[in-house]
Specification:
Nucleotide-diphossugar_trans; 192 residues; 5 helices; Spore Coat Polysaccharide Biosynthesis Protein SpsA, Chain A; two-stranded antiparallel ribbon; MobA-like_NTP_Trfase; single chain; 4-stranded mixed β-sheet; alpha/beta; globular
Length: 192
């Protein structure tokens, strides 16, 4: 998901292109996906992120044999844009926000494996929401759900409306970059 306004950053730079250690933040996510077990990457852009769209078009040329596709959404809000993406999928799909540059391929693979384990035990579960305990989250979260921070990583079924969801709690240092303070903290984490 790379179509939001990123208003909390107070920056003229589109959020996906925010430099993290001199590289656009979205590079970290795309590269982690390319090194994971994910087959196809769909990047949702909107009228809010025209420079990101152009950047991805150039980026695709660099990864010429990779399956990277653009989805144009309206940019109204996260949920609306996500619903506009659903018709592109016929089976469960992973959603990642463009603001989690500390994501690693092994974490992505671990999440996919956990989803399949849960589905094998609980067939009625349709989606997975990846969270971390609030007390180990290294910054000030924008959303807290019963002591957990959603990380902007989900696996969803390709259907509209509410889905039966299971939480998957991880203890990895994943941080959403919503402010310039978060950016500084992520850079410190990546340097370590």
């Amino acid at each position: 998901m790379a179509g939001g306004k990123g208003t909390r950053l107070n920056s003229d730079i589109e959020k996906p292109l925010l430099p993290i250690l001199r590289r656009p933040m979205i590079d970290y996510i795309v590269e982690a996906l390319l090194e994971s077990n994910i087959n196809n990457i769909y990047i949702a852009v909107s009228k809010n992120t025209p420079k990101t769209e152009e950047y991805i078009k150039c980026y695709k040329r660099y990864y010429i044999n990779k399956n990277i596709y653009l989805i144009k959404t309206s940019g109204l809000n996260y949920i609306h844009d996500l619903n506009e993406c659903i018709p592109y999928f016929s089976e469960p799909f992973m959603v990642l926000s463009c603001d989690i540059p500390t994501i690693k391929p092994k974490i992505i693979n671990k999440i996919i494996t956990q989803y399949h384990i849960i589905k094998s035990k609980k067939a009625h579960v349709e989606s997975l929401c990846v969270v971390v305990k609030k007390d180990i989250y290294p910054s000030n979260p924008s959303i807290v759900m019963d002591g957990y921070i959603p990380l902007g990583i989900n696996i969803l079924s390709p259907k509209y409306g509410e889905q039966k969801e299971e939480l998957y709690i991880i203890d990895e240092p994943i941080l959403n970059v919503n402010t310039l303070e978060d950016k500084n903290l992520v850079e410190k984490i990546l340097l370590e």
